[in-house]
Each structure stands twice: as C-alpha cells, then as structure tokens.
C-alpha cells in the first residue's frame, strides 16, 4: 500500500514515514503544497495524509485541486487546527478523515488502514480468499489459521491482491503501489515477489494473465476438482 505524505515539518514527516514503513507501507513525502498536488494528480496512491498549513499552496487548495481533477484517493487531514470551522472546511473540500496533532501514530495507522479498506469496497475488516485471511485493520495475514511470515514487499503485493480479490490487478498498478517514488525498480522484481508468494500461499492462488496482470483467487473447491471425491 502506498501513502502520499504532504507535510512541511521535515522531522515529523520522517518520523511518520519511518513508522508507516515499519507497518509495511510505501511512503512518498512532499514538503510543500505544489509538490503534493502534483504527486497526487500524477501518481497512484492508496491514501494521502495532508497537512493544511503548507508552503506554496495550502492543504485545502491541494485537496480541492485533487477533487476537481477527479482524483478519488482517500485523504486524511493531519493538522494542528482543531477548531470546528476548520474541520467543516476540510470535509467540505473533500477530506475523508481528520486527525489533530499531537496524535498517536497507532491511531494514524488504524485510520489509514480503514480508509484504504473502505475505498476498496470492504465493510468488514477481515477479508478472506480461500484459506487466506487478511485482517485489514491489524495488517495480519493467515493461511489455514496460521500466521504468514511476509517481507515488506510481499505484504504490499499480497494486500493489494487481497483487497481486490478475484479481480485483475495490473502489473503497473502493483509496481506503483509497492515501490516508493525514488526506488530503482528492476523489471522482473514483481515476478520475483509473486513467485515467493506462490510458494507461501499455494501456486494456484495467484493467476498470471499475460499482458494484463495478476489475480488472487480462492481456487476450486476440493469437491469441484476433476480428481476430487465423486458421489454415488
């Protein structure tokens, strides 16, 4: 999952980014409103964290520019402005959530996960696909009731596929959501990650659709397989 963090306080931005990366998020940082507006309009993100008091272009103007451009990404406003009028203005501009500084990073993480889950169309925090179980609120994966040990990149890929289970996820979409903007991405890196995931969750779970992307499926039920048990 990829986060756009628009925050002009460099120390705070780095602390937030470091904490989010620990939770397996990919994070791009913009230190002013103009850069944030540009990234939000040209890159693919799962969610944005947006300060209001930004240099060059204020946060509300950034948010309005995204909405006017038809960008549907969920946006959490993170600001020291705690007045009711500021909150109303933020939501009217198109914010999906509003968190006041100072804050607990654990709360920020939980709110971001909830925004991403709801944007993907999941009301329940627990998502299942065959033997896989993903708690989108805690970020935990299980297979057949046992915890899955995943690297950060594996977690990002599998969470993208899980949130869109049974749907095709384009390869370019995966790359943009897995890697941070300044990463040097090898052309075969996604295939390597997919290969590792197949060994961990079962090769039949992730389908490759050449020229299109990948799809996570529940697979055939045991009694629906050609060599499965027969009645009679």
Give an overview of the whole structure.
The structure is a single chain. A 5-stranded parallel beta sheet has the order 2-1-3-4-5, sandwiched between helices. Strands 6-7-8-9 form a 4-stranded antiparallel beta sheet, covered by helices on one side. The chain is built from 8 helices and 12 strands. Strand 7 and strand 8 form a beta hairpin. It folds into 2 domains: 118 residues, Rossmann fold (3-Layer(aba) Sandwich); 91 residues, Arc Repressor Mutant, subunit A (Orthogonal Bundle), CATH 1.10.10. Helix 2 packs parallel to helix 3 and helix 6 crosses helix 8. The protein is of the alpha/beta class and 232 residues long. InterPro entries: CheY-like_superfamily (IPR011006), OmpR/PhoB-type_DNA-bd (IPR001867), Sig_transdc_resp-reg_receiver (IPR001789), WalR-like (IPR039420), WH-like_DNA-bd_sf (IPR036388).
Layout of helices and strands:
Elements: E1 2-6, H1 10-22, E2 26-30, H2 33-42, E3 47-50, H3 59-68, E4 75-79, H4 84-93, E5 97-100, H5 105-119, E6 126-129, E7 132-135, E8 140-143, E9 146-147, H6 152-163, E10 168-170, H7 171-178, H8 189-201, E11 206-209, E12 213-216
Parallel strand pairs: 1-2, 1-3, 3-4, 4-5
Antiparallel strand pairs: 6-7, 7-8, 8-9, 10-12, 11-12
Helix pairs in contact: 2-3, 6-8
GO biological process, one term: regulation of DNA-templated transcription
InterPro entries: CheY-like_superfamily, OmpR/PhoB-type_DNA-bd, Sig_transdc_resp-reg_receiver, WalR-like, WH-like_DNA-bd_sf
Modified residues (4-aspartylphosphate): 51
């Amino acid at each position: 999952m990829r986060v756009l963090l628009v925050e002009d306080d460099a120390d705070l931005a780095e602390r937030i980014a470091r904490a989010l990366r620990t939770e397996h998020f990919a994070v791009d940082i913009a230190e002013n409103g103009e850069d944030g507006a540009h990234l939000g309009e040209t890159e693919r993100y799962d969610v944005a964290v947006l300060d209001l008091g930004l240099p060059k272009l204020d946060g509300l103007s950034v948010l309005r520019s995204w909405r006017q451009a038809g960008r549907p990404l969920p946006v959490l406003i993170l600001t020291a402005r705690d007045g009711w009028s500021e909150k109303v203005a933020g939501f009217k501009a198109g914010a999906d959530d509003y968190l006041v500084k100072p804050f607990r990073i654990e709360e920020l993480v939980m709110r971001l996960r909830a925004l991403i889950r709801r944007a993907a169309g999941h009301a329940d925090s627990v998502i299942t696909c065959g033997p896989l179980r993903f708690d989108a609120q805690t970020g935990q994966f299980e297979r057949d009731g046992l915890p899955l040990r995943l690297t950060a990149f594996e977690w990002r890929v599998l969470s993208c596929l899980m949130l869109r289970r049974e749907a095709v996820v384009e390869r370019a979409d995966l790359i943009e959501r897995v890697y941070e903007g300044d990463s040097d991405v090898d052309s075969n890196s996604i295939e390597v990650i997919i290969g590792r995931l197949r060994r961990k969750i079962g090769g039949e779970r992730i389908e490759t659709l050449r020229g299109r992307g990948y799809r996570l499926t529940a697979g055939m039920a045991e009694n629906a397989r050609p060599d499965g048990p027969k009645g009679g």
